UniProtKB/TrEMBL annotation:
Biological processes per GO annotation: regulation of sodium ion transport
InterPro entries for the chain: Na/K-Atpase_Interacting
Keywords: Cell membrane, Membrane, Transmembrane, Transmembrane helix
Topology of this chain in the membrane: Multi-pass membrane protein
Pfam families in the cross-refs: NKAIN (PF05640)
Record's GO cellular component terms: plasma membrane
Similarity field: Belongs to the NKAIN family.
Membrane-spanning residues: 37-55, 62-86, 156-174
The protein's name in its UniProt record: Sodium/potassium-transporting ATPase subunit beta-1-interacting protein
Subcellular location(s) per record: Cell membrane
Top-rank lineage group of the source organism: Eukaryota
Amino acid sequence: MGCCSGRCTLIFICTLQLVFGLERQIFDFLGYQWAPILANFLHFIIVILGLFGTIQYRPRYIIVYTVWAAVWVAWNVFIICFYLDVGGLSKDSEMLTFHISAHHSWWSEHGPGCVRREMPQAPIGVQPSENHSYITVMGCLLDYQYIEVMQSSTQILVALLGFVYACYVVSAITEEEDSFDFIGGFDPFPLYHVNEKPSHLLLKPMYLST
Protein backbone atom coordinates (compact mmCIF):
# COMPACT_ATOMS: atom_id res chain seq x y z
CA MET A 1 0.00 0.00 0.00
CA GLY A 2 1.33 3.37 -0.94
CA CYS A 3 1.84 6.44 1.17
CA CYS A 4 -1.50 7.97 0.17
CA SER A 5 -3.43 4.78 0.87
CA GLY A 6 -5.87 3.99 3.67
CA ARG A 7 -2.95 2.88 5.84
CA CYS A 8 -1.46 6.38 5.95
CA THR A 9 -4.93 7.83 6.50
CA LEU A 10 -5.41 5.52 9.48
CA ILE A 11 -2.05 6.63 10.90
CA PHE A 12 -3.22 10.25 10.62
CA ILE A 13 -6.56 9.42 12.29
CA CYS A 14 -4.82 7.65 15.19
CA THR A 15 -2.51 10.64 15.65
CA LEU A 16 -5.53 12.96 15.61
CA GLN A 17 -7.24 10.81 18.24
CA LEU A 18 -4.19 11.06 20.49
CA VAL A 19 -4.19 14.85 20.19
CA PHE A 20 -7.93 15.18 20.89
CA GLY A 21 -7.67 12.63 23.70
CA LEU A 22 -4.84 14.55 25.36
CA GLU A 23 -6.86 17.77 25.25
CA ARG A 24 -9.85 16.05 26.78
CA GLN A 25 -7.77 14.31 29.43
CA ILE A 26 -6.33 17.62 30.63
CA PHE A 27 -9.75 19.18 31.22
CA ASP A 28 -11.11 15.99 32.79
CA PHE A 29 -8.21 16.08 35.25
CA LEU A 30 -8.96 19.71 36.06
CA GLY A 31 -12.60 18.78 36.74
CA TYR A 32 -11.76 15.60 38.71
CA GLN A 33 -13.91 13.50 36.39
CA TRP A 34 -12.48 10.10 37.35
CA ALA A 35 -14.57 7.88 35.06
CA PRO A 36 -13.64 9.83 31.90
CA ILE A 37 -10.01 9.94 33.08
CA LEU A 38 -9.84 6.13 33.23
CA ALA A 39 -11.65 5.81 29.90
CA ASN A 40 -9.27 8.28 28.24
CA PHE A 41 -6.25 6.42 29.63
CA LEU A 42 -7.49 3.13 28.17
CA HIS A 43 -8.24 4.97 24.93
CA PHE A 44 -4.61 6.09 24.70
CA ILE A 45 -3.35 2.52 25.10
CA ILE A 46 -5.62 1.05 22.42
CA VAL A 47 -4.99 3.86 19.92
CA ILE A 48 -1.22 3.50 20.35
CA LEU A 49 -1.63 -0.25 19.85
CA GLY A 50 -3.60 0.37 16.66
CA LEU A 51 -1.02 2.87 15.48
CA PHE A 52 1.75 0.35 16.04
CA GLY A 53 -0.22 -2.36 14.23
CA THR A 54 -0.80 -0.06 11.26
CA ILE A 55 2.86 0.88 10.95
CA GLN A 56 4.14 -2.67 11.44
CA TYR A 57 1.45 -4.41 9.35
CA ARG A 58 -0.04 -6.28 12.33
CA PRO A 59 -3.72 -6.90 11.52
CA ARG A 60 -4.48 -8.40 14.95
CA TYR A 61 -3.59 -5.13 16.68
CA ILE A 62 -5.71 -3.21 14.19
CA ILE A 63 -8.65 -5.52 14.89
CA VAL A 64 -8.34 -4.73 18.62
CA TYR A 65 -8.37 -1.04 17.70
CA THR A 66 -11.46 -1.60 15.55
CA VAL A 67 -13.37 -3.22 18.40
CA TRP A 68 -12.34 -0.42 20.74
CA ALA A 69 -13.47 2.22 18.22
CA ALA A 70 -17.01 0.81 18.47
CA VAL A 71 -16.80 0.80 22.29
CA TRP A 72 -15.46 4.36 22.26
CA VAL A 73 -18.40 5.52 20.16
CA ALA A 74 -20.80 3.94 22.66
CA TRP A 75 -19.00 5.60 25.59
CA ASN A 76 -19.22 9.04 24.00
CA VAL A 77 -22.90 8.52 23.21
CA PHE A 78 -23.36 7.84 26.93
CA ILE A 79 -21.48 11.07 27.77
CA ILE A 80 -23.76 13.02 25.43
CA CYS A 81 -26.86 11.50 27.03
CA PHE A 82 -25.42 12.25 30.47
CA TYR A 83 -24.93 15.96 29.83
CA LEU A 84 -28.24 16.34 27.99
CA ASP A 85 -30.19 14.56 30.76
CA VAL A 86 -31.42 11.82 28.43
CA GLY A 87 -32.77 8.49 29.62
CA GLY A 88 -32.97 9.33 33.30
CA LEU A 89 -29.37 10.58 33.47
CA SER A 90 -28.56 13.89 35.10
CA LYS A 91 -25.55 16.12 34.56
CA ASP A 92 -25.86 17.23 38.19
CA SER A 93 -25.20 13.74 39.53
CA GLU A 94 -21.80 12.56 40.78
CA MET A 95 -21.68 9.49 38.54
CA LEU A 96 -18.56 10.56 36.63
CA THR A 97 -16.66 11.19 39.86
CA PHE A 98 -17.63 7.78 41.31
CA HIS A 99 -19.53 9.69 44.04
CA ILE A 100 -16.18 10.56 45.63
CA SER A 101 -16.61 14.32 45.29
CA ALA A 102 -19.17 16.85 44.12
CA HIS A 103 -17.01 18.20 41.30
CA HIS A 104 -18.50 18.81 37.88
CA SER A 105 -17.11 19.57 34.47
CA TRP A 106 -14.28 22.10 34.45
CA TRP A 107 -16.16 24.01 31.76
CA SER A 108 -19.05 24.68 34.15
CA GLU A 109 -17.01 27.47 35.80
CA HIS A 110 -14.39 28.26 33.16
CA GLY A 111 -16.33 28.27 29.92
CA PRO A 112 -16.01 31.03 27.31
CA GLY A 113 -17.20 34.33 28.77
CA CYS A 114 -17.97 32.87 32.20
CA VAL A 115 -17.49 35.13 35.23
CA ARG A 116 -16.90 33.17 38.43
CA ARG A 117 -17.79 34.81 41.73
CA GLU A 118 -17.37 33.34 45.18
CA MET A 119 -19.92 34.32 47.82
CA PRO A 120 -18.72 33.67 51.39
CA GLN A 121 -21.99 34.90 52.90
CA ALA A 122 -24.36 32.12 53.84
CA PRO A 123 -27.82 32.46 52.29
CA ILE A 124 -31.04 32.46 54.27
CA GLY A 125 -31.80 29.15 55.92
CA VAL A 126 -28.20 28.06 56.41
CA GLN A 127 -26.68 28.04 59.87
CA PRO A 128 -23.91 30.65 60.33
CA SER A 129 -21.69 28.04 61.98
CA GLU A 130 -21.44 26.16 58.72
CA ASN A 131 -18.46 27.50 56.81
CA HIS A 132 -19.58 27.23 53.20
CA SER A 133 -18.57 29.31 50.20
CA TYR A 134 -21.03 29.57 47.33
CA ILE A 135 -19.91 30.07 43.74
CA THR A 136 -22.00 31.71 41.09
CA VAL A 137 -21.16 31.67 37.39
CA MET A 138 -22.63 34.27 35.07
CA GLY A 139 -22.20 35.54 31.54
CA CYS A 140 -21.27 32.23 29.86
CA LEU A 141 -21.48 32.45 26.10
CA LEU A 142 -22.09 28.70 25.88
CA ASP A 143 -23.34 26.34 28.58
CA TYR A 144 -20.78 23.77 29.68
CA GLN A 145 -22.94 20.78 28.77
CA TYR A 146 -22.91 21.82 25.12
CA ILE A 147 -19.11 22.08 25.19
CA GLU A 148 -18.94 18.53 26.52
CA VAL A 149 -21.40 17.40 23.86
CA MET A 150 -19.30 18.98 21.11
CA GLN A 151 -16.18 17.27 22.42
CA SER A 152 -17.90 13.89 22.51
CA SER A 153 -19.38 14.43 19.05
CA THR A 154 -15.91 15.12 17.68
CA GLN A 155 -14.63 11.95 19.33
CA ILE A 156 -17.48 9.96 17.75
CA LEU A 157 -16.80 11.35 14.28
CA VAL A 158 -13.07 10.58 14.41
CA ALA A 159 -13.69 7.13 15.92
CA LEU A 160 -16.14 6.25 13.12
CA LEU A 161 -13.57 7.29 10.52
CA GLY A 162 -10.96 5.20 12.32
CA PHE A 163 -13.31 2.21 12.38
CA VAL A 164 -13.96 2.41 8.63
CA TYR A 165 -10.32 2.84 7.66
CA ALA A 166 -9.19 0.16 10.11
CA CYS A 167 -11.53 -2.36 8.48
CA TYR A 168 -10.19 -1.35 5.08
CA VAL A 169 -6.55 -1.67 6.17
CA VAL A 170 -7.14 -5.09 7.74
CA SER A 171 -8.79 -6.36 4.55
CA ALA A 172 -5.99 -4.92 2.40
CA ILE A 173 -3.24 -6.47 4.53
CA THR A 174 -5.06 -9.82 4.55
CA GLU A 175 -5.40 -9.78 0.77
CA GLU A 176 -1.70 -9.00 0.36
CA GLU A 177 -0.74 -11.87 2.66
CA ASP A 178 -3.07 -14.27 0.83
CA SER A 179 -1.71 -13.29 -2.58
CA PHE A 180 1.86 -13.61 -1.35
CA ASP A 181 1.13 -17.06 -0.01
CA PHE A 182 -0.57 -18.05 -3.27
CA ILE A 183 2.55 -17.42 -5.35
CA GLY A 184 4.62 -19.48 -2.96
CA GLY A 185 5.97 -16.81 -0.68
CA PHE A 186 5.46 -18.89 2.44
CA ASP A 187 6.03 -22.32 0.91
CA PRO A 188 9.12 -24.20 2.14
CA PHE A 189 9.77 -25.29 -1.45
CA PRO A 190 9.48 -22.70 -4.22
CA LEU A 191 7.07 -23.23 -7.05
CA TYR A 192 9.77 -22.95 -9.66
CA HIS A 193 13.14 -24.45 -8.99
CA VAL A 194 16.07 -25.67 -10.97
CA ASN A 195 16.84 -29.32 -10.73
CA GLU A 196 20.30 -29.90 -9.46
CA LYS A 197 22.63 -31.97 -11.56
CA PRO A 198 23.77 -35.28 -10.09
CA SER A 199 27.02 -35.05 -8.25
CA HIS A 200 28.43 -38.04 -10.07
CA LEU A 201 28.59 -39.00 -13.69
CA LEU A 202 27.04 -42.15 -14.98
CA LEU A 203 29.78 -44.39 -16.27
CA LYS A 204 28.98 -45.93 -19.59
CA PRO A 205 30.99 -48.78 -21.12
CA MET A 206 33.26 -47.57 -23.85
CA TYR A 207 34.13 -49.82 -26.81
CA LEU A 208 37.37 -49.10 -28.51
CA SER A 209 37.49 -49.92 -32.13
CA THR A 210 40.69 -51.48 -33.30
